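Lab notebook: predicted structure, single chain.

Context: the supervisor wants predicted structures on file for every construct in the current expression panel, including those that have not yet been purified. This is the next one on the list. No modifications to the sequence; it matches the entry in the shared construct table.
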Amino acid sequence: MLLFDASANRLKIVAVYKRPFFSSYTTSLWIRFLRFGLLSHKRLEEDLEKVGLTPPQFYVLATIGYAGGLPFGEIGAKMMVTVSNLTGIVDRLEEKKIVSRKRDENDRRVVHVVLTEKGVKLYKSTIPLFEKSLIQIFSALDKTQQKELSALLRKLNQLSWTN
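Prediction complete. Output recorded below exactly as produced.
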């Protein structure tokens, strides 16, 4: 590649590397994994936008829809976010009348997040949309490859938490 060197007032040849200069294959693997995660997240974001949800809002909706009303702390643990981050997401869902907060009858310090009637309807209609998006995202892999990928990711997740 040619590059203009202003200090010498002339063109000079600069080497261009076609591959990343990482010394470890695992770095390239991580970058591929990260890129796939970002691209698939973007795809889901676009699909969820059609129903007026952000991915974090959908994850709260799906978590509560699957498990029933849960305390803030449990939702945060399942989503791997702090309660302070979760508060803003729940606030916006509450403004949309999708969830409501309920104090625990036995321990007033505990606040449960539950789906409203509108939230239940949205959950039931959004899950098929979400699954359709995921089918499209993973369609390049056949069922055997999807199972292999799932097993490898499960293994990585288990090892990450034990180390």
